[in-house]
Amino acid sequence: MADRFDLVYVRKQFPALRRTVSGRPAAYLDSPGGTQTPQCVLDAITRYLVDTNANVHGQFVTSEESDRLLEQAHAAVADLLGCSAQEVVFGANMTTLSLLLAQTIMRDLRPGDEIVITELDHEANRGPWLHLAERGVVVREAPVDPATCTLDYDALEALIGERTKVVAVGYASNAVGTVNDVARVVRAAKQVDALTVVDAVHWALHGPIDVRALDCDFLLCSMYKVFGPHVGVMYGRRRVLERLRPLKLVTQEDELPFRFETGTLNHEGMAGTIAAIEFIADLGRRHGGAGPIGGELWLRRGGDHQRALRLVPLGRWRPSVPCVERRSGEGRHRPDGAAGRHGLGRRGADTDRLLHALRAAAAATSLSASPRPSRLRRCPPRRACPSPCW
After folding, report:
1. Please, which pLDDT band fits residue 302 given cuts at 50, 70 and 90?
2. Residue 57's CB: how many other CB atoms inside 10 A?
3. Reduced to 3 states, what is the DSSP secondary structure of residue 245?
4. The domain made up of 47-275 is a member of CATH 3.40.50.1110
5. What is the SS3 assignment for 361?
6. Cα dihedral 226, 229, 232, 236 sign
7. What is the CB-side half-sphere exposure of residue 346 using CA atoms within 13 A?
8. β 164-170/195-199 pair status
9. Is the pTM value of this prediction over 0.90?
10. How far apart are CA 109 and CA 105, in angstroms?
């Protein structure tokens, strides 16, 4: 079993790390912007478009190969998330899938039914539910604790009641990096038989996911955050998928998961998805993992490495990395290079909305909630992982 990250090997797999900016090696610090892509994923996408490009269900070789590719892609994501292939839905992206899911669930709701969301979530797990208020659904928002940038779980649980039909929560915040106690939220929702929807986009590469252990009804993520292309995937509990009535065309198959997959899917993206998951599995095996995915140990060690990177001071990088910025509690950019656990980013509607919520809760608060140094080991100098997360 490998005791440490084999960073030399890992870095060699990413062509993007060969790029220079102003004569210096590029550093990719925008974790919310996605991971970089290993060569094996690029090869898989190209290979599909060159050798196999066809639609499904045809009576010719490339169409039959496309049929098999789609089956393999569903099976690969099922391995990654810990579910069956029939419970995996592909879509254009997580946001599109979230909108489809919300509109599908709406068909079984009545005016006065309630949905609980959080102020800490990405807009993709808020907006689709907020839209349902136009149709008489009551949407309640759990607040964020401005002192810690964490959810107020007591307040969230107090919002869940007899009329609650859906509880939507993020696994990890793309804006401030907080990892939520999703299991606690799921347990609270189950007490009133509410459906649970987990946005795992920003968590998927930073730790293993087991939807069975989590006991959620839906979990969504995007493969571009997991070394893959821009493709969205959704896990749905089989018995829930079977009773829902998705928005679909008469030409769509009625079996799972196809009744939720509209139109022609992104086949080359699904080929890249398979390669990305196999890449994670290979890294797991190289670092002592086992099992059908083999990457769980690597995901855990990758998360440990990324957490350790938080202790590397960014101030010394500032002269050569002009894009490094930090948000103050008032929402302004501060290009001083001083970044804490949640400091790096660029202005966007989602982070601005969160900062507005924080300002409303406290007149002045810092987003730099530092991790506990005693639980972290320092990262060796001049080393970086391919997808640093702050």
Report:
1. low
2. 10
3. coil
4. no
5. helix
6. negative
7. 8
8. parallel
9. no
10. 7
pLDDT for res 146: 84
**Residue 374: per-residue pLDDT:** 29
Phi, psi of 38, deg, nearest 5: -70, 160
Which residue blocks in 124-266 are alpha helix, DSSP H? 127-130, 153-159, 182-190, 211-214, 238-243
Q: Which of 262, 244, 245 is nearest to 253 (CA)?
A: 262
Give every strand in the sheet of 164-170, ordered side by side: 88-91, 232-236, 218-222, 195-199, 164-170, 114-118, 138-142
Q: Which helix (H) or strand (E) holds 114?
A: strand 114-118
- CA distance readout (Å), 195 to 93, 188, 211: 21, 11, 14
Task: Give CA–CA dist 236/83, Å, rounded.
Answer: 9
Q: 3 versus 208: which is more confidently predicted?
A: 208
Residue 280: other Cβ atoms inside 10 A: 26
Of the pLDDT bands very low, low, confident and very high (cuts 50, 70, 90), residue 370 is very low
Q: If DSSP codes are grouped into helix, strand and coil, which group holds residue 320?
A: helix
More confident residue, 81 or 304: 81
Tell me the CA distances in angstroms from 269 to 233, 262, 345, one per residue in order.
11, 15, 27
Return the amino acid letter for 350.
Answer: D
**pLDDT single digits (tens) 96-116:** 999 999 999 999 999 999 999
Q: Are 74 and 85 in contact (CB under 8 A)?
A: yes
Residue 338 has what DSSP assignment?
Answer: -
Task: Give residue limits of the domains in the chain.
Answer: 7-37+295-375, 47-275
End-to-end Cα separation, the chain, in angstroms = 27
pLDDT above 50 for 25? yes
Three-class DSSP category at 47? helix
